[in-house]
Design brief:
Layout: H1 6-10, E1 13-16, E2 22-24, H2 26-36, H3 43-50, H4 54-73, E3 108-110, E4 116-118, H5 124-136
Antiparallel strand pairs: 1-2, 3-4
Helix pairs in contact: 2-4, 3-4
Length: 145
């Protein structure tokens, strides 16, 4: 098993209830949940490796995360969970004011007959008919496959 130690799986089930349901070791449960929180680990695969239902393992993860949130709100020590974050928060800066002249469209077209057009100096009113005309041209063989 790559994600979890076989010894943890062995000590996961510590007994059975009268109705046949398993009783799980809290420390082993916490270790399995920690292993699931590592980046790239499949919860379904982990459940198969541990011999438990994937939905049960997902419930344990949800309960563990809820317990962590509650413990952090009450300043109680929480069960140490994996701290590797899959996502990093980013802040986007407001775009700088750019003059309208800097937003000038650039258009360079190469026609099937080899003719090249540079329409960078054309205004918006002049570009629309050209774009419509270029849109009606048949595609070359290289772009239709």
């Amino acid at each position: 098993m790559s994600e979890i130690d076989t010894e943890v799986v062995r000590r996961l089930v510590i007994g059975r209830k009268n109705d046949g349901r398993a009783v799980y070791d809290p420390q082993a449960k916490a270790e399995v949940v920690r292993a699931c929180l590592k980046p790239g680990v499949s919860v379904a695969r982990m459940a198969l490796q541990c011999g438990i239902n994937a939905n049960l393992l997902r419930r344990w993860i949800t309960q563990s995360m809820g317990a962590d949130m509650k413990a952090s709100q009450t300043n109680m020590p929480a069960v140490a969970m994996g701290t590797t974050e899959a996502f990093v928060p980013c802040r986007l800066a407001a775009p700088e004011a750019v003059p309208a002249a800097a937003h000038k469209p650039r258009l360079h077209a190469r026609l099937p007959n080899g003719v090249q057009l540079d329409l960078s100096d054309a205004g918006p009113g002049e570009l629309l008919p050209v774009l419509e005309l270029l849109g009606r041209l048949p595609c070359s063989d290289s772009t239709t496959r």
